Amino acid sequence: MTAEISDVSANTTLVNMEKFTLASFRVKSFIRGYHVYKEDWEPELNEEQELKREPQNKEDPYAVAVVRPLPRPPKDNDPGQAPCSSAEGHPNAVQRNEEVIGHIPLRMASCVSKFLKRRTNKGKVVVTGKRVNRGAGYGLEIPCEYIFFGDNETSIPWLKSKIESLGYKLD
User: Fold this and answer.
1) What is the pTM of this model?
2) Which residue, among 93, 95, 110, 101, has the nearest Cα to 166 in the 3D structure?
């Protein structure tokens, strides 16, 4: 299967495959919860990490986590590892060999979680600045850019419209 990549605009990349066209778009925002994970992770400018659904999250079943590979293989019953979930095995759910280091904002979590239920859709985050505390009870946050990849027919237009309706500016 060959792919042809063309830069459509500053914010969208199309990949033509045999059966469908993949596209992407970017949203500037923040990684939430850094104050919880700061002992485990020191973000670096332009660092990239994956976005994964976290359906077993006790506070929000639609939570979307920022994850990185564990620095060591997980052991059974290791309290520091991500909990096993019924979604384990789904490529867009937190796995045992991944460590949660933050979350996307609650406002966009339910639509991004739904977007990531489709196996072919993906999300990643790129760190764009140093930690900040903007007040309003958000704790320490990391400025970032979220990048979403999915089919150009349904998934990307649907997610774009949902995120725009929440007041986010798309790049």
Assistant:
1) 0.80
2) 110
